[in-house]
Structure formats: C-alpha cells, structure tokens
Amino acid sequence: MANLSPYRSLPAAKRAALVAHAITNHKDVRAKFALRLASRGGGFRASAVQTWPVDRLSKEVVRLNAENATDELELLQLLYVELEPAIQIAFLEAAGVKHSNGVIEEELEPPFADADAVVRGVQAVYPAFGEDGMRYLHALVRYSANGWPGIGEQVSALQA
Predict the structure, then answer these.
(1) Which candidate, 58, 69, 99, 115, has a CA 20 to 30 Å from the CA of 19?
(2) Distance between alpha carbon 147 and the CA centroid of its chain, in Å?
C-alpha cells in the first residue's frame, strides 16, 4: 500500500459503492463527477453524463480515477464514520477518545490523545480488523497524523 492512497487500495467495487452512496445521498456530488468525466473528453457532455444511472456513473468515476485527493478523503470519512464505523469506534474506544458512534466530539482539538493512547488504539484495530484495519490506520497517518501522536511510527512498526 506504500504507493497507493488508503482510498485507492480499496477494491474497485468498494470504491464504486462509496461513490454511488455519495452521489445518492450528498447534494452536488453527481454534478461534480459528471462535469469531471465530461471534461476528460470522450464526446460526452456533462448534461448527458448527469442523466446516467448512479451505478454507471459511479463505475465510470472509479474506472477513470476521476476522484481527486479531496474526494478520496471525503469518501474515506464516509466509509469510516457513516457507513462502517466499527473500526473507528474500536480505535477511539481503545484510545479513550470521546465520541458518539465514531464521530469525535466537536469540541476536541488535535491531538485527540497522547502517544500511549494511540498505541492502545493501534493495538485494538489491527488484530481485530486485519487489512481493513491497516487501511484505516494508513488513512490516519496520511490525513490526520497531527491528531494522533506517534501513529506513523506505530503503523510502520506493524508493517515491519
């Protein structure tokens, strides 16, 4: 996974399902991706792409790697906070971070825990969730390392 982002390391079908969920449930996502696909050429106009069924649109977005870095982060948040919060809940519980069903309390500021708590979180996630847990931990390293002291070193140690 060293060269792939945590999002890109997900299977294509999982990425397409995340994009489909975002298109279906979040305003303006359909238009954003339709415009992005149309701008890549191929003869389709954004207005035509926007009428495609969600399944077709989401698969094309993934096939053409039309997601940018911001999209990747948003889609990972969708996955780990809204759709499948079990990994995040396990991490937060083990680290002793206040949350509501995996959503960190808004008043908390980074760092969310000390280095010892991060160790406990990492040790709770990887054995319980395997590759999916490792992908989650890589997402924390990539997008939120300042919130979790020592997370990079802990994840590197797991890979060694």
Answers:
(1) 99
(2) 16
Across the strands, what pairs with 99? 104
Contact yes or no for 136/143 (Cβ under 8 A): no
Q: How far apart are CA 144 and CA 37, in angstroms?
A: 29
Tokens 């294509």, located at residue: 12
How many domains does the structure of the chain reveal? 2
Q: For residue 1, which of 151, 136, 146 has the smallest C-alpha distance?
A: 136
The tokens for 137 are: 């931990």
Closest CA to 58 of 24, 83, 88: 24
pLDDT per position as a tens digit, 28-76: 999 999 999 999 877 889 999 999 999 999 999 999 999 999 999 999 9
Q: 123 with 100: CB under 8 angstroms?
A: no
φ and ψ of 33, to 5 deg: -70, -35
Question: Model's pTM, two decimal places?
Answer: 0.93
Q: Quote the domain boundaries for residue 134.
A: 84-159
Are 152 and 93 contained in the same domain? yes
